[in-house]
Structure formats: C-alpha cells, structure tokens
Amino acid sequence: MFPEVLAVLLGRIPDRSPARVPGWRAAALPDRVYPVLVRDPSADVPGILLTGVTAAEWDVLDAYEEDLYDLLRLPLDGGGHAWTYVAPDGADTPAEPWSAEEFAGRHLPAYVAECRVWRAEFADRSAAS
C-alpha cells in the first residue's frame, strides 16, 4: 500500500489505484507491524491495486512475502479481480484490526529501512545463484 516500500523493494513505484476487497479485513499480526488479510463476510478492506508489475517484480514480492501468506485472486468491489496476499486457510485468525494510518505514523520509516536491508540481501542471494 505504501509507495516508499514499493520503491525500495522494486526500485520503482508501479501504477496504483484505490481498490476494495469485500469479505476480507486487515488484521494485526502478533508481534509484527504489518497486517494479514483474513476472511470476514461483514468486512470490506481498502487497498491499492498495482498494475504493470513485471514477472521479475512478482518474484521479488513473492520472496518478500515468504510463506506467511497465500496468494489468491480475489474479486474487487465494483468489478475485476486482483492477486492478493492473504492468511493461509487454517491459520489462526488475528482478532485485532490493523490500521494503515497508525502504521504510517508510527512504523513506516523503520519498516522501509528493514525493507532496504532485505532487498540488498535478496540481490546478493540472487547474484550468487
């Protein structure tokens, strides 16, 4: 959702537009500052739809998200679909809501710094293989 994170991970900011995913909500993960999407028929989670992401960029995003999430194609409010990282089926469902505003205000600069370290390590691993 945050262009600062995309710029560090991908080296650019893909085209972005607001989107909503019905039937899902953003939940706070224990001991982490970032969220996970969990099924909730009464919810409607806002997000950002990225377009024009290359195969190489998907590889980076998939590596970054690791095994914490499943990648699902979800319907968007108003039509269309998007590939979205969500909580795996059968995972414990966090109850606490996650706030993008709180994340941006309290955690974003440190998170971007962590992303920068991860991206450099990823580049080193990729160059070695």
TrEMBL record:
Domain Gamma-glutamylcyclotransferase AIG2-like, by residue range, is 2-98
The superkingdom of the source organism is Bacteria
SUPFAM superfamilies, alphabetized:
Gamma-glutamyl cyclotransferase-like
Gene3D superfamilies per the UniProt record, alphabetical: Gamma-glutamyl cyclotransferase-like (3.10.490.10)
Could you tell me which InterPro entries the record lists for this protein? AIG2-like (IPR045038), AIG2-like_dom (IPR009288), GGCT-like (IPR013024), GGCT-like_sf (IPR036568)
Pfam families xref list: GGACT
> Which keywords has UniProt assigned to this entry?
Transferase
Q: Which CDD domains match?
A: GGCT_like
User: Which PANTHER family does this one have?
Assistant: AIG2-LIKE PROTEIN D (PTHR31544:SF2)
Its protein name is: Putative gamma-glutamylcyclotransferase
Protein source organism:
Yinghuangia aomiensis
